[in-house]
Structure formats: structure tokens, C-alpha cells
Amino acid sequence: MTMDPMVVSAWSSPSFLLVLFRLGGLFLSAPIFAGNHLPISFKAGLALCLAVSLYPLLGHGVLPARDVEPLSLLLSIMGEVAVGVVIGLAARLLFVGISLAGEMAGVQMGLGIANVIDPQFPQQASVVAQFLELMTVLTFLTLHGHHAFLEAIWASFDSIPLGMFSGAAAAGAASVLVALFGKSLILAVKLSSPIMVAVLITNVAIGLLARVVPQLNFFAFGLTVTFVIGLLVLLVSFPLLIHLIGISPGQVRLELFTLLRSLSYATR
After folding, report:
1. 3-state secondary structure of 125
2. How far apart are CA 153 and CA 91, in angstroms?
3. Which letter does DSSP use for residue 197 in this model?
4. What's the pLDDT tens digit per position in 182-218?
5. Where are the domains of the chain?
């Protein structure tokens, strides 16, 4: 069985390479796919499969001319990688807020020394942060949140035609990403505030008790009580956590399309 020469020629064209590198940039920074827990070969193969599937569906209006100078092609490839990275980073910032909430809660619960290796980042992370991040990923996939990535990357070819990424688009993307970072910090405070308030009240109570009964070893006693109180509050506030985590797919879709509108205005 031989492939149609026209199909092979289309897949080897500069426009196909631009599609491939835009998808590759997405998998470099998008949540779930980014990090060292997935091999590079898997992400490259997935990007190639999606590029092969999407390329025939793209209209001629979003595809550049076939005859492109090498330097121009290189600059276009760099721009397409930047588009994919920006789209993935916009979604990832919301996940960063949830991970930051776990870090804040874990430190307050006395779990600062009980860190584990985060597979998405080459660094240690709190156990609570890992738990919340895992719950977010499972909820995100269960609610078909990964479809938001596919919808955004498909819509990006209409919003930002291939080879049209510019400095103005980069400036627009930067402003959107800064706003998203602020939202991720607000989300982190919302998620961690019940535990932080409960632990603060517990520490104040332990401090007052230490004044009354100074003979007790409140250093060891306080760590145990703080951890137990924090864990109980985490269990009690679990419905709130699930609610905030459950809106992440819709929030990701909303923020991604807001980013695409900003990039679209900048490229026109």
C-alpha cells in the first residue's frame, strides 16, 4: 500500500511544519503534558499525530505560501512554537494556583519537611500540593477538560494564522498571562484559607496553653495537633475544594479563548 504523492507533498510542506511546531509548543507547556513524567518521544509522536489529523482540515486562508525562504521559515517556526507555549502556559497557570494552595497549606500543617518529588517539575513539592494537583488532573480529565486544549488549538489557526505571530501579539499575550497569574494567586488563597485559618487559631491556642502549663513539651505536641487539625479541616472542606477544582475545565476554556481574542486583535 502506497500513500498518495500529493498527501506526502502536503505533509512535507512548510505549512505542515508550522502546524507541527505549534502543537509541539503546546505540549511543552500545557498542564498534564508538560514536565518529565512523559517522555519526549511520546509528546513528539502525539504532536505529529494531531498535526497529521488537523492539517487536511485547515482552510487555505490560514496556510502560508509553499515557497518560503529558509530564514523566514525559521522565524515562522519560532513564532509558532511561541503560540503553542503561550496557549499551554495560560492553562497551566490555573493549575499552578492549585499547587500553590497545597504548598501554603502543607507548610502551615507542618509538612514542610515531608516533601516528595513533583513529576511535572524538577523539584520537591508538598504532599498536600501533590494531592490537590492529582485531584485536579483527575477531575479535569473526567470532565473532559482536555477537550479545551483541542478546541483552543483548533481555534488558534483562525485567530492567529500560521506565520503571523508578532511582537504586538507577544505583548498582548503577556498582559493576559499576568492577569491569569493574579487569578491563580486568588485561587490559591481561596483553596488554602480554611486550613490556614484553622491552623492559625490552633497555634494561638497552643501558645496560650503553653503559658498555663509550661512543663509540657509543646513543640512535639503542637506539631501533632496542628497536623491533625489541618487534616480534619481539609476533609471537612473537601466539597468546597471539589467545587473550585470542578470549575477548572470551564475556566480553562474561558481563559484560553480570551487569550486567543487578544492575540487575534494584535495580529490584525
Report:
1. strand
2. 12
3. H
4. 888 888 888 888 888 888 888 888 888 878 877 777 6
5. 5-266
Cα(105)–Cα(111) distance, integer angstroms:
9
Cell numbers for 1: 500500500
Which residue reads 513528539 in cell numbers? 44
Distance of alpha carbon 226 from alpha carbon 242, whole angstroms: 23
Residue type, 139: T
Alpha helices in 109-166 (DSSP H): 127-142, 146-159
Strand partners, 125: 116
Instruction: Give the global pTM.
Output: 0.75
* Of 206, 233, 209, nearest in space to 222 by CA: 206
Q: 109 is written with which cell numbers?
A: 500543617
**The CA-based dihedral angle spanning residues 256, 260, 261, 265, taken in that order and rounded to the nearest 10 degrees:** 150
Tens digit of pLDDT for each residue in 51-74? 888 888 876 545 555 556 777 778
Backbone angles phi, psi at 116, to 5 degrees: -125, 165
Burial class (CB within 10 angstroms; exposed 0-12, middle 13-18, buried 19+) of 190: middle
Confidence of residue 8 (pLDDT cuts 50, 70, 90): very low
Distance (Å) of CA 266 to CA 12, 66, 72, 182, 223: 29, 25, 20, 22, 53
* HEC secondary structure over 156-179: HHHHCCCCCCCHHHHHHHHHHHHH
75, with CB counted inside 10 A (0-12, 13-18, 19+), is middle
- Give φ, ψ of 2 to 5 degrees: -115, 150
Strand blocks (E) in the chain: 115-118, 123-126
